[in-house]
Specification:
Layout (H helix, E strand, L loop, with lengths): L1 H15 L13 H13 L2 H22 L2 H12 L24 H5 L14 H11 L6 H28 L9 H4 L3 H14 L17 H25 L4 H7 L8 H15 L7 H26 L9 H15 L5 H8 L7 H10 L5 H13 L6 H7 L5 H13 L6 H7 L9 H11 L5 H6 L6 H14 L5 H7 L5 H14 L5 H5 L7 H16 L1
Helix pairs in contact: 3-4, 4-10, 7-9, 9-10, 10-13, 12-13, 14-15, 14-16, 15-17, 16-17, 17-19, 18-19, 19-21, 20-21, 21-23, 23-25, 24-25, 25-27
Length: 539
């Protein structure tokens, strides 16, 4: 447990703290997307990724075709290894163990199909547990993650100890203790442990972003491969024991003890291939593995489709009553931020009636209700929010003010531009500058450029980054001179961002300033400046 959970975190921290190691890319916005792509191209990660996946598939194929299950198992683990890149939830290819995900690049490249999410059916047991514990108002996610990892590690260790005991007792087949519950306890332990591991990360499919890359398909492929390995090893055991293994096979479950009726349902596709018996040939094992893999992927497709929710245009009278009761409940929650957030997120699925209710809640006397209502209205691009926004931009509560600023940018409120520019000068606004600059950039009004240019002069580095990116969003032709100026800033983060903005301008004026960074003390600045010059030379 220490080796698989704590060591990856410590190793990632070691890499993150090195000044010459590129920092993580949060995957938010066009600049970070370009940054990731340039890093992949610059270090030839795409070729490495495709080659890695080819080697993994080759190992599995070789293991199956030559009956060397160790090769197939190594390939299966190779599919799963990138999950370790999820431990530090803020890394992808640009940090630490995120490099392990390079083997998934071929999946990630097909962005129109969420391939890594095509094993989503594997989460059904987890969802059932979450629903059950939710009946008792218990959010059991962390408990389930560690329960699966802990019980999986226990089964694996127990199985290894019993196997060693059988070997030293000169038994050809281990049949005692844990082997009475499962014929393959080590494989079962690994499967359960790895299931708990993938529960560490959220399920949202945010391709090429840092917070999570879906792990369901790699886990599914790994598990079906391991199940196939188990069947191959049983064929081998039948030959080594001259058929005596059959007696043990009849008395002990394959992997996990199940009720007979459920076992018959789950094994039905396999019995179609073997005509009711256990698999006796490698070809049967391959067919069974393929059939189960395809069936589970198809089930995942079905599940993903039926999970998509679209706000209804018209709702029934019963639903209107439910919505009204929900609004009343929200208004009586007091200062329970978590409870209000959970309940208020149930309002938008009611369609236009839900959005109208949010407009009403946006004027509520409870600042928490106002904050979340304004945030959700901005997320849904509701232009009718503008008059309410203008009032809340001056709210005395910082969270409400921030929500109003962010939503002004999301709905591109031109009415809010003058107010946002004036807010930059307010004494109590420094903590909101980052959001104000972003909102001005999203709205795209050129009158904001002088204000944003002033934001480049001093202050926190993240405000300077936000101001420069907003100028780029408003007028890509005017940003080059500001970006060149920022290349000389003493802060590494500011220079890194300025390099990316220079590249995005596609202005030949930035070539020489980028070349001058070849001796910059920061690795990331040097790397991207060099890649940027190459991009210009190609053009």
């Amino acid at each position: 447990m220490f080796a698989f959970i704590e060591l990856p975190r410590l190793f990632d921290n070691l890499l993150q703290n090195r000044v010459d190691f590129p920092q993580f890319d949060q995957g938010l916005g066009e600049i970070n997307a370009m940054k990731t792509e340039m890093f992949i191209r610059g270090l030839h990660l795409r070729w490495i990724g495709y080659a890695s996946l080819l080697v993994i598939v080759g190992m599995i194929t070789f293991g199956y075709s030559t009956r060397r299950s160790g090769w197939a198992m190594a390939g299966a683990i190779g599919l799963f290894i990138p999950v370790f890149g999820q431990f530090a939830l803020s890394m992808f290819f640009l940090a630490g163990l995120g490099f392990l995900r390079v083997g998934w690049l071929p999946f990630l490249e097909v962005s129109s199909l969420d391939l890594l999410d095509l094993g989503r059916v594997i989460y059904v047991p987890y969802w059932i547990f979450i629903w059950f514990f939710g009946l008792f108002n218990w959010s059991a996610h962390s408990f389930l993650s560690f329960f699966f990892m802990g019980s999986g590690a226990l089964l694996f260790t127990w199985g290894v100890l019993q196997w060693i005991k059988a070997r030293y007792s000169n038994q050809k087949v281990a049949t005692s203790w844990i082997y009475k519950i499962s014929r393959h306890p080590q494989y079962l332990g690994w499967i359960i442990w790895s299931y708990g591991l993938i529960l560490f990360t959220p399920f949202a499919n945010v391709m090429k972003k840092t917070w999570s890359v879906p792990s369901s398909l790699p886990w599914l492929l790994m598990t079906t491969t391991i199940v196939g390995i188990c069947m191959m090893e049983e064929i081998k055991m039948m030959k080594l024991t001259n058929g005596k293994y059959q007696e043990y096979r009849e008395s002990s479950p394959f992997l996990f003890p199940l009720p007979p009726w459920l076992n018959r349902i789950l094994t039905w596709p396999g019995r179609l291939v073997t005509r009711g018996s256990y698999p006796s040939r490698r070809s049967q094992v391959v067919w069974i593995t393929l059939i189960y893999t395809v069936l589970l992927i198809l089930l995942s497709l079905f599940w993903v489709d039926i999970r998509k929710k679209h706000p209804a245009e018209e709702i029934s009278q019963v639903a209107l009553v439910e919505l009204s009761d929900l609004v009343v409940d929200i208004r009586t929650r007091g200062d329970d931020r978590k409870g209000i957030w959970t309940m208020i997120n149930q309002v938008p699925p009611y369609g236009q009636a839900g959005l109208d209710s949010l407009l009403t809640l946006a004027t509520d006397k409870n600042p928490i209700v106002r904050e979340f209502s304004i945030q959700l209205l901005g997320d849904h691009g509701v232009k009718e929010l503008e008059p309410i926004l203008l009032e809340n931009l001056h709210d005395s509560i910082k969270r409400v003010r921030s929500a109003a600023i962010l939503s002004a940018g999301r709905i591109r409120s031109e009415m809010a531009v003058d107010t946002l520019i004036q807010m930059v000068e307010y004494p109590r606004m420094p903590n909101n500058l980052f959001h104000i600059y972003n909102a001005l950039g999203a709205i795209g009004d050129a009158k904001a450029i002088p204000c944003l240019a002033d934001g480049l002069e001093e202050g926190e580095w993240y405000n300077q980054v936000s101001a420069l990116n907003s100028i780029l969003a408003i007028d890509a032709g005017a940003v080059a001179r500001y970006a060149i100026q920022e290349l000389n800033d003493e802060n590494n983060e500011v220079r890194r961002n300025a390099v990316m903005v220079c590249i995005q301008t596609r202005d030949p004026l930035v070539i020489e300033p980028l070349k001058s960074l070849k001796n910059d003390p920061d690795f990331e600045v040097r790397f991207y400046a060099r890649q940027g010059v190459k991009e210009f030379e190609k053009r």
